[in-house]
Each structure stands twice: as C-alpha cells, then as structure tokens.
C-alpha cells in the first residue's frame, strides 16, 4: 500500500492548444491471428516456443548514451521528453532524483510528457494508464505492456541517459514471465487455473499469474473464434480485422504456455467437485476458477427482430459486415448508447443516411447529463446524423427476406438497409444459475474487494460482476468498462496466489466520436448536479459531476490532462468538493 502525502485539492483548468491526436488509430502492438479449432478430442497443444525478446543490453552496439540536460534544467515534479539521437525518453525529476522511462504510452502511443506526475507514477493523458517512474511497470490500465526503464547518471552537473536502441524504438516492455514447468505430464481434462472468457479480464489474469512466477497449467476458454482482442475498437474502428486488433500475437501464448480454447462454451460449473462442463459434453477439472464472461447484448422484442441485416455488434465479423452493408446505404441505429453513438459516428460519412432511435430526449443523459448530451447531439446533427428521440421501434419490415423499413411507435417509418441494435446488455451468467455462486437479482456475480465470490477458489471479473468501489464508500457497483476489466483480472490473479490485494482503482473510460474524444473518470451514478467549465458549443469543456457536496466524476473534451489529474487526486483518497471546482 502506498503512503499518500497530502495532496492540495485545487483543480486548475487550463485549455490546451489545439492538437490533432492519433490516439484512436494504433492498436496495441502488431499481432497475427491464431484460431485454435477444437475438433473431437484434440484439445491440447504445445506449440513450438518462440522467445519474444532477449535482454536488450547483451549487445554493446545496441546501447546508446547521451547527455540530455543540466541538473538544474528540471525542477522537482517536472517531466521532459529528451532525444537520444535514435529515439526519445521521458526524463522525470521527483524528490531530487532523476528517472528515465519510455515516453509513449504502450496502449495507443499517447505522449506521457502531457500526462500527470504524482506519487511516483505517471498517468497517461488519454486513457489513464499509470506507470511507476522508478521501474516503468504498469500499475493501472488499459494496455498490457510496461514502459522500458533507462539508466540515469549524473556527471559534472550533467544528466546522462544510457538506453537500449531497441527499447527506445519499441517504447514498450513485456514483464518477465514464468512458463509452465511440464505441460506434457498433464491430463488433458484437468488444469490448475481455468479462465472462462478471453477478454481483458481473462488475459490480464493469465499474464499476471505468469508475471508472478506461477508455473502450473493455465487454460482460457472463449465462445469467440479469436484470441483476445481490443473489443472497444469494434465500434470505434469498425473495419479493423481480427489480426489488427489482437491484444497479443499467437507466439505470445505459445511462449508463456497460456492455452486458449476457442469456440468453447461452458454450460455449467460444479463447484463442489471443481468441474466445468462444456456445451459439447467435455469436462475440465480446475483448482482455481476465474469467471470473466462479460455481457450478452439485449435484442429487440418487436416483430421482425430475427431478420437478416439486423445486428448486435459482438465480433470483428459483425463490425466488418455492418460497414460493408452500410456503405452508401440507409442505416438505422437503435439506442444512443456508447456503442450506438460510436457506430453512428463511424458510419456517418460512409452511409447514405444514419438515423438514431432513442427513448431518452438526449443521448448519454444518464451518463454525461443533459447539457453535455445536447452538445454531443448537436455535433452529430452537424455531421448529418438524424435523431428520433423519445420513441422506440415497433416493427422491422422486410422485402424479399431483407430489412427494408424500421417502423417507430411514433408512427414514423424509416428506410433501412441495415439496423444496428445497441439497447444495453445483460451479464452472461445464465450458466451459473444452479451453481451456488452468489448472483444478484440483475444477474451480476457478487464479489468482494479481492474479486472472490462466495465460493472459495472461485473468482469473477469484468462486466459480469458487482464489486465494492472504494471511491464511493465501498458501494457495490457494476463498471462495464475496458480499464476496469484489466484491473479486475490483475486483482483476481494476485489473490489466487493469496496476496490479499484489494481493488482501489478509479474507473476511467473514453469514447471516440468524429475524431474527438470524451474522457471520463470516477463513478457518477446518481449525480445531482453538473458544474461545467469551458465552452460546450466549442466542445472544449470539463464537466464535474457532483453528489451533494462532493465531486464523484469528471468528463472532458479537448481539455487534457484534466481527467487524468482528477483521477490522480481521487486515487490518492482525497475528496474534491463542489466549491473547489465552481
């Protein structure tokens, strides 16, 4: 646990100069596809090992050393991007000591010099990932890799950095990991750790176990055809192919003996005998279990919902198909949710027309409040997206088996060649009904701060759980977002190894619309007021969400790194009062 010094809670709002970011473009590293087809009983594979990276300091030709500044050039608490000739580093001075790490966030390449330095770590200005300045290790998410750390020395009042050229160029470092000691001795139908679900939570759990030296068998299973991929990209960058958005290349799973069973659905879990039963009848014994099955999208309940060309976006294939069908055609999107709005923004310049149908009178009302929702709605209308608010779909009509029209309860009939449904989701936990694992009335798995369920040895993580949120006085909440799934997976892994680590992270999320990002930190559920600074019409603002006298969340557009600043203050356990931001 960190000892937290007093943090002066003064939120300074500085509007940055306009900058064009490529943040939503680059996926997490290059990757190649792998499909493990499970046919008959051939469920076990031990592929050839490919070492991922060797020690970057082995080859003296690979090392560069350069004088980067005078010792007095940096004050305590300052960061500077410095050039070593063949690449850049981030130089940091804190408590009289100099540190040097990679200058780009390994997640999407954000310049960390524009981030927030606090309590021995630097927080990314775009999506909130945190890295230790002394080790470069990732401490909060999203993303999987850590920063490379470089040697710093002081000679004659000058600061020198010694670094590997390879590390300067890649700007990322995969933590050291254990391998499985002897896969060949295993019984096919038993594993030490079974992970159900191969999203961010499942993958981070498996990686954390290996990073902590765990050398027994790990099996992940997923209903998906693909290895773990960057799911937020499905609605933000819809024509991405699976290999472009893979979180790790296939060699990674082979090298670290993380087995992935694709297109495998668990039908039931017997917690007494510690057995998972798959839909095809295959059974697997486990010692420790992580359930990270995520959500299942809700479908429409009206006539015609089963028709061709009506989509819930669940897979890269869904997203690719929608783009293909929507090009120069009429698109109707049901639900002005994150998914619906991101899809509308992506298709606006590709489709002939884009219409959005929503029950509320402004999009994002529950999440961002009415004023921010209205400003975002105006931006969409300026980009030719038409809204049909305070209504819902009563019928989908076909012509020759294909979607032709969407009929609204208001009586309006919309032309539609393709329909995307984004009306929320339910936790994918139906298979646990008879298991004895504690599930609440909405279907969420209930866990404690260590991601443990009521059954010893059974953990749960990600979108399908409710957990106690430290930020909101340990209120049990569901936070179905990418960063939180990563952290859940990490905490679950540490506690499978009996570390006794409790979750205390601040939720952080983002959405990308027409090349602009809204960033958000905290948990604003039940906010009763919004304090806005900046200019909503110009989409250059920060919104503080308050409950009684306390700031519980913050959102911004074109105002970096304010959301990361607030996240750091909240992470330090400090309270921000309404009067501090008014």
From TrEMBL:
It comes from the Eukaryota. It is found in: Mitochondrion. GO terms for cellular component: mitochondrion. This is Apoptosis-inducing factor 3. Transmembrane segments: none annotated. PROSITE patterns: RIESKE. Belongs to the FAD-dependent oxidoreductase family. Induces apoptosis through a caspase dependent pathway. Reduces mitochondrial membrane potential. The keyword Mitochondrion applies. One of its GO terms (molecular function) is 2 iron, 2 sulfur cluster binding. Residues 66-161 form the Rieske domain. GO terms for biological process: execution phase of apoptosis. The gene is Aifm3. InterPro entries: FAD-oxidoreductase/Apoptosis, FAD/NAD-bd_sf, FAD/NAD-binding_dom, FAD/NAD-linked_Rdtase_dimer_sf, Reductase_C, Rieske_2Fe-2S, Rieske_2Fe-2S_sf. Its main location: mitochondrion. Keywords: 2Fe-2S, Apoptosis, Electron transport, FAD, Flavoprotein, Iron, Iron-sulfur, Metal-binding, Mitochondrion, Oxidoreductase, Transport.
